[in-house]
Amino acid sequence: MNFYTRKWVKPEDLNAHGTLFGGRLLAWIDEEAAIYTIIQLGTNGCVTKYMSEINFINSANRGILLSWV
Q1: What pTM, to 2 d.p., does this model score?
Q2: Residue 62 backbone class (left: φ over 0; alpha: ψ -120 to 50; beta: rest)
Q3: Residue 7 bridge partners (DSSP)
Q4: Domain of 34: which CATH number?
Q5: Cα 16 vs. chain centroid, distance in angstroms?
Q6: From CA 19, how far away is CA 59, in angstroms rounded?
Q7: pLDDT tens-digit map of 46-56
Q8: Segments forming the whole domain that contains residue 51
Q9: Residue 60's pLDDT band (boundaries 50, 70, 90)?
Q10: What is the pLDDT of residue 1?
Q11: Is 33:48 a contact under the CB 8 Å cutoff?
């Protein structure tokens, strides 16, 4: 199963520097991981236990469309 995600960086997603707030990106990742898990397991009973590493390489500005697989 391929699971594609797209998020549009809006003004409410920005930090004081005008770039995507890292916490917002982590929330998006957590939400998408939960959706994927719920679909795969067929249950709504899941929680995030552990995230090992997120490496922020580039910043994202307002209006950017982010996508990942």
Answers
A1: 0.85
A2: beta
A3: 66
A4: 3.10.129.10
A5: 19
A6: 6
A7: 888 988 988 98
A8: 5-68
A9: very high
A10: 66
A11: yes
